[in-house]
Amino acid sequence: MNLPQAARATLSVALASALSLLAACGGAGDSSDRSSGIGNETGAKQAWFHYQRAEEAPGTVSQTGLKITLRDGVQLSASVALPADADGKALPGPFPVILTQTGYNKSIPAIPASNAFLVRHGYAHLSVDVRGTGLSGGTWEAFGENEQGDYLEVIDWAAKQSWSNGQVGTWGASFMAITQLFTAAHQHPAHKAVFAIVPMGDAYRDIVFSGGQVNIGFIPLWMGLVTGLGLLPVEPDPNLPLVLAEHLLGALTQFQVPVIAQAALGLGGQNYDSEFWRLRSPLEYTDRIKVPTFVVGGLNDIFQRGEPLLYEALKGHATSKLLIGPWQHLDGSMGEGLPRDNVPDLDSIALMWFDRYLKGLGNQAESVPNVTQYLWGEERYSTASDWPHPQARPERWYLRGDQSLSRAAPAADESSRVALQQPVNGLCSTSTSQWTAGLLGATQLPCFSDNRLNEALLELSYTSEPMAEDYYFNGPIQADLWVSSTGTDAGVLVRVTEVTADGVSHERSNGILTASFRAVDEARSRKLGGQMIQPWHAYTEASRQPLVAGEPTLLPVEVFPTAVVIKKGNRLRITVSGSDFPHGLPPVTDLVDQALGLITFYSDAAHPSSVLLPAVPVSAITSP
């Protein structure tokens, strides 16, 4: 749903205010629609179309102050928007229900938890504050076991209300997308469809500890947002003082502040992948999700890694579609720029999806392309039958001693290069904009779209010759870097950029890794053409392998998936350095080892540092 500029500004203010507050605190489809792989056949003819139908109501009316009493007596705050006539009177139901469960306070208009467009088309939209947020009681625990149990009770409650016909779909962005996936895993018979906009896949790898380092850019901002918005009294409630006190006490002593502190300090096992993070990772539950699921993602989203992986994990047993736009998190939440290239706006797509699977209308929603992605460089959308792209093949590019990037392997005597190990490279970069959800990017500083400043000061660059023809790669990327350090650990950053004819260096993706976390599980890593292209690092205490000072060591670095066409005459560039702040900062327990000394990047025949790209024929680019 596209927001007006004023609402976007309000959201930005809310995000910043929340961070400051934290600092101060310390007809349903038949059963065949849910069968394996429906709508995901790679040989089927697929095309986008613009779906429209007349509104069923000229207006909407809201019922607020609803309470859902849970098994432990905690009450969740809810409201429902219903189709209404021109006088504002609710139309007689019952209606299929759209459910949104949010941690951002459903009553704040700048972060919509209800969709009037869908309501006017004949849906009831139920919005619920999850436990410990908004006007709901209890203590927030960010997708924890109690909260996930609540999702089942909420959808059961929604299916039984007088305004409900018992058919429920879920909708929403970010937090509200993640709750949908956990809800679907319960397999409640009333749940018929998911429309998840910019959802997370793997809590540890996608966002909180990418590469084994604390995401200082987003996690405090996000937890501050939930905390701050939960303390804003927007809707009257007699229990408001008690609820607000419970929220604040929980934030200070039970969840938000303790979790952030433990992660930053490297205490309590928070800096290792563990049951705590797996419990909060939708990818761990995808085998239980059977309902049709539409996933929307962004090429520079905070969940850039997880969104295509969610689609991939679902496609074999649930009707699934994937749309990835040129978005960071805020823009992706709204589907900024759509309709474009025959791809409809998100409201129209959601209506098509819910009409098919909640109302049972034969609108052929299952026939839209399985995968639709924006392509950097091409600057338009393209479709594919699957993700990763079925025509991808591995192509290796070597970091050469003369600072070039080449398909030819290096010779024995090529020189290495040395960088300072320091933890705050990247303060002004596309990465910084990305990992603050696009908030800082709104300032439009040149360095948020051009990486040349970082390259000149702190990063080592390796650049190809101008492309003789367009060069297309699409999917996950792996950098295999030979490094040594003067210490027993190091952090490494890899950026993949496109350099235009005028010299501007556009970052397209990046990856970070703490060297001691380099161990990979071969069985869980992705291979392409027999070569590993997406390493799966264990990130456990037992898997840690300290460096031996001065000894060259191979680091397989996961670079998050992207889709890029390097246009003829432009160049491919790989940059490396020791950090990417605020995307990643080592916990205090690791900081000394990673912040002092020098790191050497090798480029010789015995230590051939390289990047493996998933190259796709340009002829495979199709129009939506």
UniProtKB/TrEMBL annotation:
It comes from Stagnimonas aquatica. Pfam families: Peptidase_S15 (PF02129), PepX_C (PF08530). It comes from the Bacteria. This is CocE/NonD family hydrolase. Residues 1-23 form the signal peptide. InterPro entries: AB_hydrolase_fold, CocE/Ser_esterase, Galactose-bd-like_sf, Xaa-Pro-like_dom, Xaa-Pro_dipept_C, Xaa-Pro_dipeptidyl-ppase/CocE. Residues 351-612 form the Xaa-Pro dipeptidyl-peptidase C-terminal domain. Keywords: Hydrolase, Signal. GO terms for molecular function: dipeptidyl-peptidase activity.
